[in-house]
Amino acid sequence: MSGQFEATTDVDRPIDEVFAFLADGRNDPKFSPRVQKIERVPDTPTAVGTVFRSTVKDAGMTTSREFRITEFEAPHRIRWAETSKNIVMAREGGYDLEPLPEGGTRVRIHNVLEGHGIGKLLVGLALSAARKDADAFGRRIKAAAEAS
């Protein structure tokens, strides 16, 4: 079983600034409290093939995650795929950005979660929690991007 969650938020910053902030996955802890640490490999500007390795804590469990950038179209689109093997993982995800008439940026984030092994039983709970938090997640992205 798999399923998607998404959030949309309007950020009061120009699209180029918001794209640069989100493209550097090392900013994730600023809006995702589950991310305990993260690194970019190689430590060069983000591009297709860049990997972000992180340690996250979900439901009291700490896991290692690895995401590879699969599409990178500045300043409108970023896509990733989780390459690590976890019981519940983000098979694919991304950001879509569009400029707003008053100079801000609309950001849509989405992730497709899937379960493996026992994770097939847990993915529904993970999706429910992610969907419940989606609006708050969008607000955290907005606040972090505007503060950068």
Entry summary:
The protein has 148 residues and is α+β, with helices and mostly antiparallel strands.
Description:
With 148 residues, this protein is of the alpha+beta class. It is built from two helices and seven strands. The chain has helices spanning 15-23, 119-147; strands spanning 2-11, 35-41, 51-58, 61-73, 77-82, 88-99, 105-115. The protein has a seven-stranded antiparallel β-sheet with strand order 1-7-6-5-4-3-2, with helices on one face. Strand 3 (51-58) and strand 4 form a beta hairpin. The chain is globular.
What structural category characterises the helix and strand content?
A: alpha+beta
Distance between the termini: 37 Å
Low-pLDDT ranges: none
Tertiary shape: globular
How much strand content do the residues show?
over 45%
**How many distinct beta strands?**
7
